[in-house]
Amino acid sequence: MTAARPRTADRILDAALGQFGSRGYEATSLDALAADLGVTKQAILYWFPSKEALLDAVVVRSAEDLRVALEAALAGAAPGLGRVDRVMSTVFRFAVRRPALLGLLREANRLGPDVAARLEAGVAPLVQRAIGFLAEEMNAGTIRRADPRLLLLFMYATVVGVATEVEVQRAVGFTPSPASLRQLRRELFAFVRAAVATA
Question: What's the CA gap between 121 and 123, in Å, rounded?
Fold first, then answer.
């Protein structure tokens, strides 16, 4: 009985992330979510007492998933551009496999200051850690000096934008497939490395 509980909660979180990220938070009702899951609305409310609580849980779990993925990627990674590659690779994979999370992040500003603040609080530790990591690499002379906050923003926007803008990929004649995604990742990483490397 205990083992079934986390699976049910995880199913609800997965479905909520998908719907919040693709349809939007406001457009997603708990009734529609329950119908898609094949459960009652009361079953969702048993695990998450409100739609707002469900959103909070989605944000917390997603931020934790990304943190765990980044820590695993960085464990044992050589300092320097190898660490930069590991971080980019993890974020790229995350963007390709979980685009709904990025949709939810984009949606945050339209949901009002309270929701945006909760989303920001969920990802703030990751952002601070990434800024610190970039500053360390700059101090070590591995990557060129810049404002680490802006560099993080540029790198994030570049990696995530290239990974998730499927319509733009198609518009330039790039057909998404596993092989083409590998090529895209190689070229993208070469571009970012060239942009951040010291002369």
Answer: 6
Give the tokens for residue 3. Answer: 């083992």
CA–CA distance, 147 with 65 (Å, rounded to integer): 27
Least Cα distance to 147 among 78, 74, 196 occurs for 196
CATH code for the domain of 114: 1.10.357.10
Could you give the C-alpha distances from 67 to 70, 71, 143, in angstroms and in order? 5, 6, 23
84: which 2 tokens? 């930069």
Question: How do residues 2-25 score in pLDDT, each as one tens digit?
Answer: 444 468 899 999 999 888 877 888
**Number of other CB atoms surrounding residue 137 within 10 Å:** 21
> 104: domain range?
59-196
Residues 6+ away with beta carbon under 8 Å from 42 = none
Specify the amino acid at residue 91: V
In a domain, 40, yes or no: no
The per-residue pLDDT for range 116-151, each reduced to its tens digit, is 777 777 778 878 888 888 898 899 888 899 999 999
